[in-house]
Amino acid sequence: MSGLDEERLARAYLLRVAEPPAPALHAFVADQGPLAAAKAVRADDCPPRVRDETAARRDVERAEDDLAVADRLGARLVIPEDDEWPAWPLLCLDQAGRRGVQGMAQPLALWVRGDARLDTVTEAAIAVVGSRAATGYGEHVGGELAYGLAGHEISVFSGAAYGIDGAAHRGALAGSGVTVALLGCGVDAGYPAGHVALLNKIAERGGLVVSEYPPGTSPARHRFLVRNRLIAALSQGTVVVEAGRRSGARNTATTAGVLGKVVMAVPGPVTSAMSIGCHELIQESGATLVTSIDDVIAQAGKLGALPGERASARRPTDRLGPDALRVHEALDRGQGKSAEEIAAESGVPLVRVRALLSALEIDEFAQRCDNGWKRSAARRGRR
Amino acid sequence: MSGLDEERLARAYLLRVAEPPAPALHAFVADQGPLAAAKAVRADDCPPRVRDETAARRDVERAEDDLAVADRLGARLVIPEDDEWPAWPLLCLDQAGRRGVQGMAQPLALWVRGDARLDTVTEAAIAVVGSRAATGYGEHVGGELAYGLAGHEISVFSGAAYGIDGAAHRGALAGSGVTVALLGCGVDAGYPAGHVALLNKIAERGGLVVSEYPPGTSPARHRFLVRNRLIAALSQGTVVVEAGRRSGARNTATTAGVLGKVVMAVPGPVTSAMSIGCHELIQESGATLVTSIDDVIAQAGKLGALPGERASARRPTDRLGPDALRVHEALDRGQGKSAEEIAAESGVPLVRVRALLSALEIDEFAQRCDNGWKRSAARRGRR
Fold first, then answer.
1. pLDDT in tens, A31-79
2. In this complex, how many residue pairs, one in chain A and one in chain B, have their CB atoms less than 8 Å apart?
3. Are B334 and B105 in contact (CB under 8 A)?
C-alpha cells in the first residue's frame, strides 16, 4: 500500500460503517472528499440521509484493523483515488442512479486479493453467471465459454458460488485467463467452504477476489444481490448460462440490462428447470441467445466494448481522476454548457471544474464552443 | 365426389401437366377458369410463360385415371370451386407472389385423403416441423407440443418424414387431435415406407393426408421444398422443434415468415447439432423462442389467428369463392377504387367484378364510397 494513507483509512472506516449500497454516503463522499466525509460521519454532523445510512455503526472504528487483516491475507483496499480504480466501468452505476434506479450507488472502495490491477482486468470483461444448482450441461457450457474468453484475453467475472460460478472460474483458469470473483462477504470469509482453494488459486494466478465488504463480513442473501451490481457494472456484458425460474443470476442479468450492458443467455433443453430462467430472459427481457464463444464475442463487440477498440482507447482516459470523469460526463456532444452549469450537474466545485475543463481540453476530451464547453468531437467514438 | 366434374377433371389434368409451383398457369387458370385454361393448354394456345410450364407434359391425359386411382385410395381432388377449399389461408401465397417472392403460387387443386373438410382443419392450425435425424429430446418435445395442440383443438400440420414430423403426428393422434400430413409425393406413394401405417392412421382418425402431386408421383427433394409453402400457408404459425444447420424445416420456417405467419423455434442444448438451426432462427431470423404449448398458443394468439376469433369470423368468408376473394383483396381500407381499377388489379373480368362487389356489400366485406368501393369498416378486424 503506497500513499493516500489517510484517504484509505477514511474509506475503510466508511465501508465499515455503512451497509452497501449507500447512495447518500457515496454522494456525500463525492462532494466532500473522504476525509471530510469520514470526519462528519464520526461527528454525527452530516445530512439526514447520510446519517440514516451510518448511524447504526458510526462508532465502529476498525479501519486500521481491517487494513491490517487484509494485508495479512495479501489483500488491499483499492480506493477511487488510486490509479487502478475502475472509474469508467463504475460510472454506469451513477448514471443509473441519476435515472432513479434504486441501489445503484458506486462502491466507496473495494477490498481486493490478487496482484492484477483492478482497472486492467475490467478493460475487456464478460460476466459468466448462473445457478448454484447447475446441471452437468450448464457446468460444461459455462466452463467452455470461460475457457474461450480466456483464449481471447477477456477477463471472466462471476460470483464464487458452486455451480456455474465455479465452472466459469475453473474454465478461465484452465485457459490461463484472468478471472475475477466478486464476493457477497469479506474476502477472508472462506465462503463457500468448498471454494476456498479455488478462490486462493484465482488470486494466485493473475485473477482477483473482490468485495466491498470489510474482512470478517459474513455472507447474506441481500449482500449477494447488492454484489451483483458490481459484476454487472465491471463487465461489458453478462452471460447467463443456466438459471431457474427464480435465480440470482437473473438479477445480475437484469441489472446488466439496466446499466446498458449486453445481456446474453444460453438456451438449453426446454425440459430442464435450470434453463427456464435463460429462456425467460430471451423471451421477456430481450436477452440475446448465445450458443458459443463466437456469439458472445460478436454480441459484446457490437457495443464496441471489447479489445481492439479498448486497447487503443484506454490510455488517455486512464489519466482522468473521478472528478474529471464526472465533469466529462456532464458535458454534452451537441450543446455547450457554462462552467457553472457543469459544476451544478457534476457536483464538482466550480473552481475545480474550471481547472479540470482546461485539463480535459488539453487531453481532447472537451472543447470550447460559443456558449461554453462541450465534449470534443475528436473523442466522439468513446462511449 | 359431387358436382363440378368438368372443373375437377380439368384441374386434375392441369396438376398432371405442370410441375408445382406453376405461377403462370395458376394466374392463367384464375383468369380463364379451369375449363378454358385446360383447353388452351391442350391446344398449345396459351401465353409463353404458361407454355413453358406445360409444354413438356401437356399431352399426358391421365386426369380420369388419376381421379379413379384416388377414389380407390379413398382420396379426392379438392378444387378451388369446392366449398371446402381453404381459400383464405392460401391467399397469403398470392400476396407473397405479388410482392415478387418466387415459388409462392397457389396450388391448382389438392389431392386429399381423409374425411375431414380441408377448410375446417385449417381454421386453427399450427405446423410442427423439424429434422428427420431428430434426437430423443426433439421427438419428445415435438410429440408433447402436438399433444398439447390437440388438447386445444388446434390442428397439427407437418410433413411425413421420420423424426419430428412423425413425432408430431403421433403426439396429435395420442391427444385425439386432428393432424394433417402434407406430402412431397403422391398420396399413394407409400413414402416413407416406415410411415405408411402412420399415414393410414392419420386419414382414418379424422386427419388428412394432402398433396398437390398426382397419384404415383415419386418423392423428390425439390418437391419437399415446394410442399413446404403449403405447410406454412395452411397453418397460422410454424414451430421448428429441431433443425440442423441445413434443414428443410428451416425452409418451412423461412417461408412461414415470408407469408406473414408466426415463426417459432424450440431451443435445445447448445451442444446438440440438431438444435443449431433452431438457435439460428431465433438469433438471425426473428423466430420466437418457445418452450411449451402455452408459449405456442400465446404467440399464435398474438396474430389473432387461433380459435375464438376465428370461430366467429369464419362463417361469412367461407361463402366467398376465389373470384370474390380476389376482388376483396384488391379493395383498400382507406381509398376507394373504381370497378375498373378493381378489375385491372384483381384480374377478374369487369362484369363479374360489378356483380361480386354487390354481393360483397351485402356480406359487409365491401362498401361504396365517394370515389368507388373500399373494404368495409365493419370487417376491419380481419387480417
1. 999 999 999 999 999 999 999 999 999 999 999 999 999 999 999 999 9
2. 55
3. no
Instruction: Kindly tell me the sign of the dihedral angle through the C-alpha atoms of A242, A124, B286, A248.
Output: positive
Residues of chain B within CATH 1.10.10.10 domain(s) are: 319-379
* Segment A300-304 long-range contacts (CB within 8 Å, at least 24 positions apart): A300/A126, A300/A154, A300/A236, A300/A237, A300/A262, A302/A262, A303/A236, A303/A237, A303/A261, A303/A262, A304/A381, A304/A383
Contact B275 A267 (CB under 8 A): yes
Between CA B164 and CA B240 the distance in angstroms is: 9
Cell output for B257: 415468415
Q: Does the pLDDT at position B1 exceed 50?
A: no
Cβ contact (<8 Å) for A270 and B266? Answer: yes
What one-character DSSP code corresponds to residue A337?
B
User: What is the complex's ipTM, to 2 decimals?
Assistant: 0.76
Calculate how close chain B gets to A344, using CA atoms only, in Å.
Answer: 44
B246, B220 contact by CB (below 8 A): no
Kindly indicate the confidence band of residue B383, based on its pLDDT and cuts at 50, 70 and 90.
very low
Q: Are A89 and A256 a contacting pair, CB within 8 Å?
A: no
Q: What is the rounded CA–CA span in Å between residue A20 and residue A223?
A: 8
Architecture of the domain defined by B118-310 = 3-Layer(aba) Sandwich (3.40)
Tell me which residue of A63, A91, A61, A58 sits closest to A1, measured CA to CA: A63
Q: What count of other Cβ atoms lies within 10 Å of the Cβ of residue A254?
A: 18
Domain with CATH 3.40.50.450 in chain B: 118-310
A319-379 maps to which CATH number?
1.10.10.10
Considering only CA atoms, which of B189, B182, B180 is closest in space to residue B214? B189
Suggest the residue from B291, B292, B296 to mutate for an interface test with chain A (most A CBs closer than 10 A): B291
Look at A266 and B270 and tell me if their CB atoms are within 8 Å: yes
Residues of A in contact with B282 (CB under 8 A): 267, 282, 289
Distance between CA B183 and CA B169 in Å, rounded? 13
Pick among A272, A291, A302 to test the B interface (most B CBs inside 10 A): A291
Nearest to A366 by CA among A355, A378, A381, A382: A378
- Name the band, by pLDDT with cuts 50, 70 and 90, for residue A361: confident
Q: Looking at residue B377, what is its pLDDT?
A: 58
Please state the separation of Cα A53 from the chain's center in Å.
Answer: 21
Interval B274-299: pLDDT, tens: 999 999 999 999 999 999 999 999 99
Q: Is A164 helix (H, G, I), strand (E, B) or coil?
A: helix
Per-residue pLDDT tens for B211-229? 999 999 999 999 999 999 9
Q: By the 8 A CB rule, do B107 and B212 touch?
A: yes
Residues from chain B that touch A291, judged by Cβ atoms under 8 A, are 270, 276, 279, 283
Q: Do B270 and A275 touch (CB under 8 A)?
A: no
Q: Is B375 helix (H, G, I), strand (E, B) or coil?
A: strand
Give the closest-approach CA distance of B308 to chain A in angstroms: 25
Long-range contacts of A58-65 (CB under 8 A, 24+ apart): A58/A17, A60/A16, A60/A17, A61/A13, A62/A12, A62/A13, A62/A16, A62/A214, A63/A9, A63/A10, A63/A12, A63/A13, A63/A16, A64/A9, A64/A12
Rounded CA gap, B41 and B63, in Å?
14
Name every chain B residue with its beta carbon within 8 A of the beta carbon of A134: none
Question: Which of B182, B204, B206 lies closest to B121 in space, CA to CA?
Answer: B206
Q: Which residues face A181 on adjacent strands?
A: A158, A209
Reading the block at residue B120, the C-alpha cell is 375446417
Answer whether B116's CB lies under 8 Å from B74's CB. no
